Here is the input.
Amino acid sequence: MYQLILPRCSHTDLACFVWESDIQTLTFLGLVFAIPMTLFFIYIN
Here is the structure.
């Protein structure tokens, strides 16, 4: 998915590699935190 957002980045570029890794990490953490919070709000309502 992030490769579609950043098509010009090559994997030999360290900065782009770190940037892509950060996007994957943030997406993963976002899903990990969003799902329990959604269930929590459904539960309290």
In short: The mean pLDDT is 76. The two ends are 34 Å apart (CA to CA). Residues 10 and 31 are 26 Å apart (CA to CA). The longest helix spans residues 14-44.
